[in-house]
């Protein structure tokens, strides 16, 4: 005698737990992420004729993490004081020369600090 087994029907897969898991992951990543403040660097158009006609009175070279002001190494913490000393000596223009191994974040942080000093005109140039 042959007995037929009843055909077992599979239940459809419910997507409700998947949606719950995705929501919990989204909530976790939103709450655990950090938001940083991004600095801005004002970039002006170049003057006609290839330059502005004014000669900078001081040069700051950014070479990676290294800072050189008028040929002398300065510490990162001493940048504002050195720039203030320039202003005190009636030096009102500073050329920031960026070398190729300098990161954009380093340039933005230096420029943000320099822009906080009133009376100092800062110009940026690239160098290889």
From TrEMBL:
A Pfam family that this protein carries is: ExbD
Q: Which GO terms describe its molecular function?
A: transmembrane transporter activity
Question: Where in or outside the cell is it found?
Answer: Cell membrane
Which terms under GO biological process does the entry name?
A: protein transport
Its membrane topology, per UniProt?
Single-pass membrane protein; Single-pass type II membrane protein
Tell me where it mainly resides.
Answer: membrane
Q: Look up keyword Transmembrane and say if it applies.
A: yes
- What is the name listed in the Swiss-Prot or TrEMBL entry for this protein? Biopolymer transporter ExbD
Organism of provenance: Roseibium aggregatum
Its taxonomic path starts at: Bacteria, Pseudomonadati, Pseudomonadota, Alphaproteobacteria, Hyphomicrobiales
């Amino acid at each position: 005698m042959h007995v037929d087994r009843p055909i077992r029907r599979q239940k459809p897969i419910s997507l409700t737990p998947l949606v719950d898991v995705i929501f919990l992951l989204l909530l976790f990543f939103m709450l655990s992420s950090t938001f940083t403040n991004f600095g801005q660097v004002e970039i002006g158009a170049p003057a006609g004729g290839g330059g502005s006609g004014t000669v900078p009175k001081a040069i700051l070279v950014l070479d990676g993490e290294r800072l050189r002001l008028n040929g002398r190494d300065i510490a990162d913490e001493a940048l504002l004081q050195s720039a203030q000393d320039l202003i005190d000596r009636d030096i009102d223009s500073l050329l920031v020369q960026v070398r190729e191994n300098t990161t954009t974040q380093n340039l933005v942080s230096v420029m943000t600090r320099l822009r906080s000093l009133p009376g100092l005109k800062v110009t940026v140039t690239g160098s290889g």
